[in-house]
């Protein structure tokens, strides 16, 4: 879902949340209450996804990219004419040109 330029920061945030959750569960001083902190992190994540992240079911990657670009007020560099629909017949010259 992430563009190549934003993947490293996204993976850093995901990894940080993962390790913070593991750390809180592993604290010896909190005992059984450490899972309450973990549950709060999970609840916050669920609410964030439910409220902020749009539904992407049955949408193409281009549609999703446009949705996020519109939401973040950025411009997409891909043109619609470059994207071809799948399922149609492809000529032999098009197949050869894709593998060159």
TrEMBL record:
Compartments, as annotated in UniProt: Membrane
Annotated Gene3D superfamilies: MFS general substrate transporter like domains
Membrane-related topology note: Multi-pass membrane protein
Assigned keywords, A-Z: Membrane, Sugar transport, Transmembrane, Transmembrane helix, Transport
Record flagged with keyword Transmembrane helix: yes
Segments traversing the membrane: 33-53
Pfam family, one: Sugar_tr
The keyword Nucleus belongs to this UniProt entry's keyword annotation: no
Major localization class: membrane
Stated name of the protein: Solute carrier family 2, facilitated glucose transporter member 5
């Amino acid at each position: 879902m992430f563009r190549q330029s934003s993947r490293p920061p996204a993976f850093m945030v995901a990894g940080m949340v993962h390790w913070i959750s593991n750390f809180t569960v592993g604290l010896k001083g909190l005992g059984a209450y450490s899972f309450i902190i973990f549950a709060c992190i999970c609840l916050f994540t669920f609410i964030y996804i439910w409220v902020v992240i749009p539904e992407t079911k049955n949408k193409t990657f281009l549609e999703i990219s446009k949705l996020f670009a519109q939401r973040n007020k950025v411009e997409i560099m891909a043109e619609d004419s470059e994207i071809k629909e799948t399922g149609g017949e492809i000529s032999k010259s098009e197949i050869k040109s894709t593998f060159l």
